[in-house]
Specification:
It is a single chain. With 701 residues, the protein is an alpha/beta fold. It has five domains: 90 residues, no CATH class; 81 residues, Nucleic acid-binding proteins (OB fold (Dihydrolipoamide Acetyltransferase, E2P)), CATH 2.40.50.140; 84 residues, no CATH class; 191 residues, Rossmann fold (3-Layer(aba) Sandwich), CATH 3.40.50; 159 residues, Rossmann fold, CATH 3.40.50.300. The protein has 23 helices and 21 strands. The chain has a seven-stranded parallel sheet, with helices on both faces. The longest helix has 32 residues. The protein is globular, with a radius of gyration of 32 Å. The two termini are 34 Å apart. 41% of the residues are buried. Bound molecules: adenosine-5'-diphosphate and magnesium ion (MG).
Amino acid sequence: MSSSILTSPIEYLKGVGPQRAELLQKELQIFTFRDLLEHFPFRHIDRTKVVPIASLHPQSDFVQVSGMIMSLEEQGDKRSRRLVATLNDGTGPLELTWFQGMAWAQKRIQRGARYLVFGKVTFFMGKPQIVHPELEEFVPEKTNGKPFLEPVYPSTEKLKARALNGRQIGKLVGQLFEMLSPQDLPENLPPSMMARHGFLPRYDAYRQIHFPARPDLFQKALDRLKFEEFFFTQLRLQLIKLQRHQGSKGPVFEKVGDLFHGFFRDLLPFELTGAQKRVLREIRQDTGMGHQMNRLLQGDVGSGKTIVALLSLLLAVDNGYQGCLMAPTEILSQQHFEGIAKMLEPLPVKVAILTGSTKSARRKEVLKGLEEGSIDIVIGTHALIEDHVQFKKLGLAVIDEQHRFGVAQRASLWKKAAIPPHVLVMTATPIPRTLAMTAYGDLDYSVMDELPPGRKPIKTVHRYESKRPQVMDFIKAEIAKGRQAYIIFPLIEESEKLAYEDLMKGYENVKAYFPEPAYWISMVHGRQKAEVKETNMQRFINGDTHIMVSTTVIEVGVNVPNASVMVIESTEKFGLSQLHQLRGRVGRGAEQSYCILMTGPKLGNEARERVQIMTSTNNGFDIAEKDLELRGPGDIEGTRQSGLLNFKLASIVQDKHLLELAKQEAFSIAEKDPDLSTSENRIIKEFLLSQKGKTAWSKIS
Ligand code: ADP
Ligand code: MG
């Protein structure tokens, strides 16, 4: 096969050898010719551009200047001996320094002659200099030609020390292209698609990205290869989804039974929103077909995902199956359990809770009930996915606040039944659409973009520390109206002594404003035992305390509709989606609610931007998009491990249009020719097969 040359060990490339090969492997994970081919330059230098010395600045990096050598002398004593030349182009002086090869340089350089000098500018004592420049005699017409774009590659200190800096790596890539021919990089897109988008052939694209003949060709090469990255991921995901829809067996929820109907008719405490109804329809459709459902439900904070989960669970029970609801924390599991058990009380459904703190006698009962099938619905934490938890007939697993669970954890759930259960994954905070589509494209996807009626938008303001007394007075006024308030401090990790001290100081401070017995305060943080946490939380939920001082342990899910104020301390330490999630803890009742973002007097640019976004919108989907723009996909929770967003060239933020194109093409092929059997598409199939096992994707079932 023609791929053989690209799989050659890098050691065998001319100019590499065993020692450099080892370094390239260690430092840049370049093992083969292909790895080097895919080590893309991060910039190109136009070698025909000559800049005035006076315009150099500390960020100039590699430059080319031309001028006359004014002086040339050896400096320093034995150990720091160096050759120093001064070049002047009429706009100012530039120092050229050699520590090595002095004799050679001295021979070549003549005072009073003009040279073209190339190298990396550094500043020393405010003056520009180039150490070990490249230097050639100045020939005027040389600079009048077309641009000559030389690639510069990512490198590391260790590599630079071994004469493999960003430009020297380019020499190796040049060597590589000496050996490559178009057959080594066969086309993988059908001709019609190439024509439709005017793409460069694959070989040309690689070549132009490393050694562009012109800037516009570089751009075209980039587009082609970015498209390719998007296209093949999208196509793979589409094909997986299709396979699941057609192939994998799932429990059949064929009827809507008495439980669902009974609950809907008599017990539902409110009218469902349009979005809730739509999602339920989608779920009913999915689960009735005999294929496994794998659905991602995206809903903004407070959009009412819990009731959708509950009705879906009833659907499972109606059809003779068990269901489970998994939440990321004890508090949240407890709250789900209490809420759901209460709502289902009048119905013949057995609901249980299983968490890490379930006492062993009770645990035994629950495990037995699940195994025998006497428990219909179980709610809990990670404890649910442990091996000894066996179900008689698990038909549906709902995972709340999904991104706290890893892919592997999710996968272990569906090993619990002969036919894998349907899976409904509910996100805590919206994931940007583009990202969800890319990372979770193999899942079916529902959006709840509508809040229950009658909610007043939360008013969000920014307050500096100096306004603390007024903020505290405001909380007092709200408490006087019968409301409750949250005051949130940044998360305490085991090791974060400082954050813990901050919280304690904050707590004392709050207590000073709100003394007992006029006011009661709950405090919850990560270092407390589960029982203590729970008691404190419960007192706040019951309305026995006025204020909840907490770290972000309450971030997800808790529902206390009477709370109307959310104060976030040290706002600058929180990310956008976290802030939005926290804000979502208020505004759950009919009252006007407030979110107050406290910060110190000085704010960095990014923190300022986050505050600005928070005070200008309540829409989680918009915030998610901004978050993606500000932080990039790598930092969005839950996506890092998917490995799917690690594109070499493409960025789902900057290359949205290409992503959209790729998605359209992939969808159309998956729809018309899912087996990739037409002569047009065979080329795609061959490529996919040759890539097998190379890419991991977020196959969650
Ligand atoms: P989230 O989507 O953030 O999990 P929840 O399911 O906790 O939201 O719902 C938030 C609040 O809205 C709860 O108090 C819930 O009872 C209420 N709620 C849910 N759906 C509706 C609806 N259709 N009409 C009125 N209130 C609703
Ligand atoms: Mg929730």
